[in-house]
């Protein structure tokens, strides 16, 4: 569904991403992991059309979309969440979700009906009439997910949607992410919560210092010495291998 080929992104003399490639099959959940500052969010910006790459190519459903702006990619079915969650504070939860729904539904009643459905789907059904500013961190993360989902995407780019959540909140939202995929939305996710990556992702790419250093199943990646050295650390890798074995 998505193919990223040899993407390089320079900011002056800084190479934020250097020759990175990945593919996302239709119907998959694919993870993108790596240390802070590795270039993961920059690569998301290129895929979603917020950044124009210095070189390389992005293809979606077999078509070259490298030159298309973000709003056209959204219409084509690419949606993303943002690492820093910023709801429209003056609107309630339903109205925030409807902002995404208006991409495909110009009629206000239709957009709000879809917002209601998506709100219930992500666990915000009881909060639809509340001000967005009143939500907890976990609630805001769900709202960010809902707003992207309301654009009715084919592929969803999740940028650390679990960051800042406690273990019980993570356990609650992991099945939501899986159900979104099961209902037909392909997912590419940046995530530091490795237990969630082990449980959700079929394929994982590892970005470090702007370059892909590994790819494979979560289990394979946890056993890769380059990944252990650059990102996980030996103790964490050992624990995650146990998680992967139990999950399998």
TrEMBL record:
UniProt key word Nucleotide-binding: yes
Coiled-coil portions: none
Keywords for the protein's UniProt record, in alphabetical order: ATP-binding, Nucleotide-binding, Transport
InterPro entries the UniProt entry points to: AAA+_ATPase, ABC_AA/LPS_Transport, ABC_transporter-like_ATP-bd, BCA_ABC_TP_C, P-loop_NTPase
GO terms assigned for molecular function: ATP binding; ATP hydrolysis activity
Domain ABC transporter: 2-234
Domain of life: Bacteria
GO cellular component: plasma membrane
Any matching Pfam family: BCA_ABC_TP_C
Name this polypeptide is given: Amino acid/amide ABC transporter ATP-binding protein 1, HAAT family
Naturally occurring in which organism (per UniProt): Microvirga guangxiensis
């Amino acid at each position: 569904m998505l193919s990223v080929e040899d993407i390089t992104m320079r900011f002056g003399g800084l190479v934020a991403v250097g020759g990175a490639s990945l593919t996302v099959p239709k119907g998959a959940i694919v993870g993108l992991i790596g240390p802070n500052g590795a270039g993961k969010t920059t690569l998301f910006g290129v895929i979603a059309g917020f950044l124009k790459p210095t070189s390389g190519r992005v293809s979606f459903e077999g078509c070259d979309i490298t030159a298309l702006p973000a709003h056209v990619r959204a219409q084509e079915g690419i949606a993303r969440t943002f690492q820093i969650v910023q709801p429209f504070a003056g609107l309630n939860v339903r109205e925030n979700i409807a902002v995404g729904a208006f991409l495909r539904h110009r009629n206000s009643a239709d957009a709000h009906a879809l917002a209601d459905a998506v709100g219930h789907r992500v666990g915000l059904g009881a909060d639809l009439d509340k001000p967005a500013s009143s939500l907890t961190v976990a609630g805001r993360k769900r709202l960010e997910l809902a707003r992207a989902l309301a654009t009715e995407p084919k592929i969803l780019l999740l940028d650390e949607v679990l960051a800042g959540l406690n273990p019980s909140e993570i356990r609650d939202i992991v099945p939501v992410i899986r159900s979104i995929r099961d209902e037909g939305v392909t997912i590419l996710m940046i995530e530091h919560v490795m237990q969630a990556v082990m449980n959700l992702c079929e394929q994982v790419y590892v970005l470090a210092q702007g370059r892909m250093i590994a790819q494979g199943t979560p289990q394979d990646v946890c056993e890769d010495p380059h990944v252990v050295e650059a990102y996980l650390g030996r103790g964490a890798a050992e624990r995650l291998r146990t998680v992967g074995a139990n999950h399998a």
